[in-house]
What does this fold into?
Amino acid sequence: MRQNLPHALLFQGRKGVGKFEFARALAQGLLCETPQPSGEGCGHCLACGWFEQGNHPDFRSVEPEALTEAEDDKPAKGRKPSQEIKIEQIRELAGLVSLSTHRNGMRVILIHPAEAMNSNAANALLKTLEEPPPHTLIILVAHQAQSLLPTVRSRCLKLAFPVPSVEQSMDWLRRQGVADPAPLLAQAGYAPLAAQELSGDELKELRQGFLSQLARLQSLDPIALAEKNEKMDLVNMVRWLQQWLYDLIGCRLCGLIRYQPDFAAEIRTLAPRIPLHAALAFQKELLAAQKNVHHPLNTQLFLEQLLLSYMQLMNPIESEHG
It folds into this structure.
């Protein structure tokens, strides 16, 4: 298998379908000293021990600072960690690939998510892809492969990771101990690993409370709700708003509810009251918010504005005469 590998692979597909996990398993198998017939690492040799401890000399994982700090659970104080993969991180790889591999084996570089590379970083990687070093495999994992430079994509062997069937995902989630996987799977766009991440009791409770407020228009106070949630993860709340709006529009147009089957009754009650032109305008506002969600100037005002726009959408008559 090792002799037939290309110099670069691009794993592409929706987030939460297992691309990153597969990439790590492949890397471990390639670095393992006694791999199994399936190609997986044995889990017992010295190389597998190094890999599992995160210090194999021939493996390098490149990801945004924000992901690294989230994994270490030690966020830097006084500044927000970068969401980008920077050129300095890619340039560091040049020093790595110039060295001989350990025990004359393979070297694996994993870049995740590849679309997080800024333009300078992507161009720096392109030089390495154009002149690939020997005995080195570069794996790019991308949730949005279309965002990568076409020249980067063209120099990789591309492997698509489709979303498993609902039955396969439900069965896998139950085996992972998720008691009621159906609503979580719907919220995650039917990506099973993303659904597993949503299964924590705390996150489920936060979502339930937030969406319950969106459903109760008579008692919804956008300013109070924004103040209450100012310390919460904005990424989740913007996603919940996007999915809520998607289901309102889908229900309004054709009676379909994709993301919130557990709030189907509330959505069916609310959907007929939304003007479609205003809903599409709010959808654009949420898309713009999604791009800025990691760097809001003021978290509370950011969320407050979105919730006020939602109220205006759901109460068009009152807004016109207010």
Observations:
- The chain has two domains: 2-160, 200-321.
- The radius of gyration is 23 Å.
- DSSP finds 16 helices and five strands in the chain.
- The CA atoms of residues 58 and 96 lie 8 Å apart.
